[in-house]
Sequence to fold (116 residues):
Amino acid sequence: QVQLMESGGGLVQPGGSLRLSCAVSRTIFTINAMRWYRQAPGKEREFVAGISSGGTKNYADSVAGRVTISRDNAKNTVYLEMKSLKVEDTAVYYCNSLVIGEGDSWGQGTQVTVSS
Fold:
């Protein structure tokens, strides 16, 4: 099982920026995909962004152009850079890993609140 720990959440004003980090317990090269999800109060968890082991990135339409997923292989860390944040981006953000043959792992989540 992969251990994941998110950090970097907090309170930010609309239009502001945040960078979330996900520390991974295993060498990222061994993980098929790393993804970020979010869950707002009263809503289902939804996909935000993903990066494959080959480096292919994809984003949800709701965040495309405002969010960038990246990884630092040397630090075994995945990042989610968010800019032009909106009130509707408020949610708990979760890091997720997928290893074929092992399944999904989840972090505990980090709260992002966008409010003036």
